[in-house]
Amino acid sequence: MANIQNGIYAIINVEATNICLEMLGPEGGYSVVGKEFRNVVGQKWMLRRDSDGNYALCSLLDPLFLNTAIDPEYGAKLAGTPFTFYWGIESEPGFENIFRLFVPHTYLDVEFVNNGCFTPGNPVTLGERSEGRNQLWRLQRLA
Fold it and tell me: Alpha-carbon torsion 59, 130, 17, 54, what sign?
């Protein structure tokens, strides 16, 4: 597990170098998509570590947590929900300050839809862990 300080971060994909997680507002159903990093409020996530070493990620756009729109399973789209979900975050061997976000006790990692198709605006989903850099994320501290 990673030891990341509580704080506000942008979550930026490693392969799609300037594409980050953005939660859309009510008009977008609070979906989480990949968008070019612009430092807007929907791209800011408050990370809070629990006693088990997992992390709740809360959007600053609305007090909603990064979660799945359905049960956490392969292909599930991510969305903001009022229900706290704790994510595993671990350092990726061979990289400095690069992480995987995943459902604890599984091999389901956060990635862009269709195994990493990172066209801006594409949904963010859960995919089976792979060697792909599309499942790797840089946490850029904003505050």
Answer: positive
